[in-house]
Write a structure and sequence with these properties.
By secondary structure, the protein is an alpha+beta fold. It contains two helices and seven strands. The chain binds zinc ion (ZN).
């Protein structure tokens, strides 16, 4: 039996799901509610759902500048020539929202 490091109470094993739908096991203390997540599962979450980063080249267009969107993303978001997206200005940069 696992014991709580905070109060020495009994820890029970439970299962939960992350918002991404990954199941993981964790222990919760019956006495104080202290939670311990099994480390190996916790590491698997960011590994699987790490945000992919792409480098894109900026080119001059007739008006303004254009960004070359990688073909992987064109397929994923079903982007089309002359299609419309929404650009949001954020502190860290710009975000492109596809419809
Ligand atoms: Zn406890």
């Amino acid at each position: 039996m696992k014991k709580c490091s905070e109060c020495n109470g009994k820890m029970v094993e439970l299962k939960a799901k992350t918002p991404e739908g990954i199941e993981y096991d964790y222990f919760i203390c019956e006495m104080c509610g202290e939670e311990i997540i099994k480390a190996e599962k916790l590491h698997a979450v960011p590994q699987k759902h790490r945000l992919k980063r792409y480098n894109a080249k900026i080119s001059k267009l007739r008006e303004g500048l254009g960004i070359k969107i990688p073909s992987e993303l064109v397929k994923k978001y079903k982007l089309k020539d002359n299609g419309l997206v929404t650009i949001i200005s954020e502190k860290e940069g710009i975000k492109i929202i596809t419809a």
